[in-house]
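Write out the bound-state structure for phosphoenolpyruvate.
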Amino acid sequence: MSAPNAGVPATWPAPFVTSPVDATVAVPGSKSLTNRYLVLAALADGRSRLRAPLHSRDSELMVSALRSLGATITEIPGDGPFGPDLLIDPVPAAARGTRQIDCGLAGTVMRFVPPLAGLVPGTTGFDGDPHARSRPMSAIIDALRSLGVQVDDDGAGSLPFSVTGSGRIAGGRLEIDAAASSQFVSALLLAAPRFDKGLHLVHRGSTLPSPEHIAMTVSVLRGVGVDVDDSVPREWRVAPGPIAAFDTVIEPDLSNAGPFLAAALVAGGTVRVAGWPASTTQVGDKWRSILPALGASVDLAGGTLTVTGTGRIRGADLADTSELAPTVAALCALGSSPSRLTGIAHLRGHETDRLAALVAEINRLGGDAEETTDGLIIRPATLHGGTWETYADHRMATAGALIGLAVPGVVVRDISTTAKTLPQFPELWQQLTRSAEA
Ligand SMILES: O=C(O)C1=C[C@@H](OP(=O)(O)O)[C@@H](O)[C@H](O)C1
Ligand SMILES: C=C(OP(=O)(O)O)C(=O)O
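---
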């Protein structure tokens, strides 16, 4: 694919505002929903359509991965403002051969695609960006081996590795430790209807992160006619059977809506996000409770979420903020009282070690942040300008932009990393900040 955000400079002076914002923002489709539905469409019993899907580096990598496994994916004009719809014809039964898949830095690609590769005859190599090689993968590698699939790696429990599928996976009972990522559970559940005996998956680890993302997986599976029993905590039973072809509209990415909504707290003023679903499995719906805890008022009416802030942020104790944590941490760094974020130890295995990265960057600007065993403590401090490093992490980039809204002279390194899930970020952020000047 062409370089996302081509032309965006390597260092990006974050817009600083001195008056309240007043903006309505439309955000593109959910990464988590787009990539789940793409995987299910590749395994479905006929042609599926995704309306208003995300078009970003992570979704393009998923499209390429599924194409190389044999799915036919075609772009067709749609109604959404952010790009075409997708028609997907599943991987045909006769698909075979060898292929190499680039996972980039996409957790959904590196975790969701290997079980599919086990269902397709032939050898599939997996590798990704330099940072991808330090993301945890051993739970998937071990799970596939327990399921009888050949995996060849160098024993490090990470990319690169190859999966040699025979075309069938028997399935049955399987224990894994998904403490490092909920994506291990989602990956196995998504492919499980195509295992001969289905799957009885049991999580045996100490903690299970990002439960909302697992609930999303269960919900999308049920939506395409798959029988999933999740009545026993930390266990899932997926019945074998067909995955019904579907035609579905992808919701806007509520996690990516976060930095825009948070701008109302930082600058004061009002930000509205259109197309907010009345009910959703996205973890980003938690903004409706997180932002009020930090001092905003929030109203959901007529499909629009409206967030109003005063420019004054109070600290809070917030648990299990999952992929929302970098945005939350940026808000807390601007808070007038201490904050404690808990239940996010597994962020150490995200695009970068997010806990270390947030502490380093907040403190570089004069902040007072500290790592705990499972999160962060952030105390009030007066921040100053400087370079904000992003470590190839899109959510570090948007966190830097948010701090720069209130602190003059913040320069974000590599804003183009936002192309991972939101290529339009620099442009949408400029529009938002211009509303403060108007
Ligand atoms: O399944 C998904 O779509 C995701 C699950 C979560 O992963 P972790 O459980 O590794 O946090 C989340 O952080 C990631 O952004 C997307
Ligand atoms: C953790 C994230 O991504 P990934 O899907 O690559 O795990 C994220 O987007 O915050």
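---
The CA atoms of residues 13 and 411 lie 4 Å apart.
The chain has two domains: 11-27+252-437, 31-249.
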